[in-house]
Amino acid sequence: MVISFEKQIEDVDSLRIKTARDMLNQFCKYISENNPKYNWVGVYVLRKNKLILESYVGKPTIHEEISIGEGLCSQAIVQNNIVNEPDVTSNSKYLACSVETKSELVVPVRANGSPVGEIDIDSDSPRAFTKEDEKFVSQLSELISNQVKILSD
Known about the structure:
- By secondary structure, this protein is of the alpha+beta class.
- Strands 3-2-1-6-5-4 form a six-stranded antiparallel sheet.
- The protein starts with a helix and ends with a helix.
- It has a single domain, classed as GAF domain (Beta-Lactamase, 2-Layer Sandwich).
- β2 and β3 form a beta hairpin.
- It contains four helices and six strands; from the N terminus they run ααβββαβββα.
- It comes from Cuniculiplasma divulgatum.
């Protein structure tokens, strides 16, 4: 059974977990389980000009820390805007995590308008992410912004 984006937003909004880190772990697990084309779901937290991987579901990655200026993840922070790359193999800024990854969606998580982290989603399908995915993940980023802000301080 496919759960609608609206229902998933309600479910994420109702997550009441003791710590910010536990909440992000549950968030990544829930989003990954309910969106089959989301093969890797992670949350990076911005700390001292680096993106630190706080939580993820999917294959392990060597990119647990990304300096600002490197990769598509960094681009989303610098531009404070969504990065939706339909074909990672055609973008020289892509930091390869898995040979299976074909597309990537990176959405900044903001506090008071400034990025404090991001949601990073990879798909093994090319052109996997639509404007609807962008809107959905943007809404999710608002729901987790307090937890990400706590961990970024």
